[in-house]
Amino acid sequence: MNSWTHAQGVLETPQFEWVALSPTLIVVGAAVIGVLVEAFAPRRHRYGTQVVLAVLALATAFAAVVGLAADGHASTQAQVAGMGALAVDGPALFLQGVLILVGFVSVFLFAERRLEPAEHGRAVDSFAAQAAATPGGTAEKLAVKSGYTTTEIFPLMLFALGGMLLFPAANDLLMLFIALEVLSLPLYLLCALSRRRRLLSQEAAVKYFLLGAFASAFLLFGIALLYGYAGTLSYAGIADVISGAPPAVDPGLAATMGNDAYLLIGGALVVMGLLFKVGAVPFHMWTPDVYQGAPTPVTGFMAAATKVAAFGALLRLLYVTLPGMRWDWEPVLWGVAIASMLAGAVIAITQTDVKRLLAYSSIAHAGFILAGVLAVSEDGVSSVLFYLAAYSFVTLGAFAVVTLVRDGEGEATHLSKWAGLGRRSPLLAGVFALFLLAFAGIPLTSGFAGKFAVFSAAADAGAMGLVIVGVIASAIAAFFYVRVIVLMFFSEPQEDGPSVVVPSPMTTSMLGVAAAVTIVLGVAPQYFLDLAGQAGVFVR
Amino acid sequence: MSFPLLTATVLAPAIGAVATAAVPSARRNLAKWVALTASLVTAVLAILVLVRFEPGGDRYQLTESHAWIPAFGVRYELGVDGIAVALVALTAVLIPFLIGAGWNDADPKEGEAPAGKRWRPTQGFFALILMVEAMVVMSFVATDIFLFYIFFEAMLIPMYFLIGGFGDRAGENSENRQAKQRTYAAVKFLLYNLAGGLIMLAAVIGLYVATADLPGGSTFSLQAIAEARASGELTFAQNTERFLFLGFFIAFAIKAPLWPVHTWLPNAMGESTAPVAVLITAVVDKVGTFAMLRFCLGLFPEASAWATPVVIVLALISIIYGALLALGQRDMKRLIAYASISHFGFIILGIFAMTSQGQTGATLYMVNHGIATAALMLVAGFLITRRGSRLIADYGGVQKTAPILAGTFLIGGLATLSLPGTGPFVSEFLVLVGTFTRYPVAGIVACAGIVLAALYVLILYQRTMTGPVRPELSRMPDLRPRELAVVAPLIAMLIFLGVFPRPLTDIVDPAVQHTLSDVGESDPEPELEARR
Question: Into which EC class is this enzyme placed (chain B) (predicted)?
Answer without folding.
Answer: oxidoreductase
